[in-house]
Amino acid sequence: MRSLLLAVGLGFAACAVAPHADPSSTLLGSYRMNDCSDAWLELRLLGDGTCACSSVHTAGGGLRADYSGRWQVQRDVVTLELDHRYGDWFGPRTLHVLRRDGFVYLVPRADVALFEAHGPLHDACFHRDGAPLEVWRRGARAE
Questions:
Q1: What single string gives the DSSP state of each residue in the chain?
Q2: Is residue 111 part of a domain?
Q3: Does residue 6 fall inside a structural domain?
Q4: Which of 47, 67, 71, 92 could connect to 108 by a Cys-Cys bridge, CB 3.0–4.6 Å?
């Protein structure tokens, strides 16, 4: 019984020591989510557990807000902890890791059902360049 408790305790300790994904993880890299034709969000997950985030708007002369922080993944949920005090402007901070046809998508919790019903939508999930996407605006698609 003591061995079992020790093993369970060590398992929890191992989880606590590794706050981010393994550097060989398929999650590492750059992602983008279109907000509209002239605005998008960018996200980079790095192997050291840091992340870089940007909110880009090209209309009206352009505006770019950059944030940095840390990320971690547990049970296929990525959590972003942004350092900038205006980090709330970036958008979703909890992203579900969903896979389809060999591609990885990071989907805000509020859009998981939409993803499951219609697939990866350009304005409802973070995706990598080359990932297949459905291109339509929310509410514009006839059911």
A1: -HHHHHHHHHHHHHHHH--S--TT-TT-EEEEEEEETTEEEEEEE-TTSEEEEEEEE-GGG-EEEEEEEEEEEETTEEEEEE-STTGGGG--SEEEEEEETTEEEEEEGGGHHHHHHH--BTTTSBB-TT---B---TTTS--
A2: yes
A3: no
A4: 92
More confident of the two residues 13 and 51: 51
In a domain, 64, yes or no: yes
Give the pLDDT band (50/70/90) at residue 71.
Answer: very high
Tell me if 44 sits within 8 A of 31, measured CB to CB. yes
Place of tokens 């840390």: 70
Tally the domains of the chain.
1
Question: CA dist 100 to 59, 89, 97, 116, Å?
Answer: 33, 28, 10, 10
pLDDT at 20 over 60: no
Q: Name the residue with tokens 């591609």.
A: 103
